[in-house]
TrEMBL record:
Keywords: DNA-binding, Endonuclease, Hydrolase, Nuclease, Restriction system. It holds the Pfam family Methylase_S. This is Restriction endonuclease subunit S. The keyword Nuclease applies. Belongs to the type-I restriction system S methylase family. It comes from Lactobacillus porci. The lineage of its organism: Bacteria, Bacillati, Bacillota, Bacilli, Lactobacillales.
Length: 172
């Protein structure tokens, strides 16, 4: 998975069992890299971007049987302890965490962040895994709610655009 996938294609978490991911077709090459496959709970961080989206991440879920590997300009993080699903993905992409990264970014046209800089950041977590799960589910539901309403807005704008074009072409 390349940094562009993390920055643009995927959200805060990836359900690998339901998502079409880029893949390597040569199984002999893939088998040599078995030890580096990503697992549920792993975080993929984009370490390079042309703006301040450096540090955007995606949390892996549903990876059972799916071979996921890192691509260019990404950093894999495997938490030492287990977190509630989706909690870290949402937290690391939050303004609270991302604001810690801004002073650690370097570069002018292309901005980057290093592994060592990421190690100097703090993550505030609820002690209870149950609370982490509830937070992850709550934010997921909010994401779906927002996406649903955005789709409704987009559908409303489409007919208005057509009416505007019709009126524009009708005026002589």
């Amino acid at each position: 998975m390349h940094y562009g996938d993390v920055l643009i294609k995927f959200g805060d978490y990836i359900d690998a069992s339901k998502t079409e991911l880029p893949y390597v077709s040569d199984e002999t090459k893939v088998d040599k890299l078995k030890s580096s496959f990503l697992q549920d709970g792993d975080i993929i961080i984009a370490d390079t971007a042309e703006d301040d989206t450096v540090g955007k991440c995606a949390e892996i879920q549903g990876s059972d049987g799916v071979k996921i590997m890192l691509g260019l300009h990404t950093i894999a993080c495997r938490p030492k302890k287990k977190f509630g699903p989706m909690f870290l993905g949402y937290y690391i992409n939050s303004p609270t965490y991302h604001n810690q990264l801004k002073p650690l970014m370097h570069g002018i046209k292309v901005t980057s962040i290093s592994k060592s800089a990421l190690q100097d950041t703090d993550i505030i977590i609820p002690k209870s895994t149950d609370e982490q799960i509830k937070i992850g589910v709550c934010v997921l539901r909010l994401d779906h709610f927002i996406a649903l309403h955005q789709q409704k807005i987009d559908n409303l704008n489409f007919p208005l655009t057509k009416v505007g074009l019709y009126l524009e072409n009708s005026i002589v």
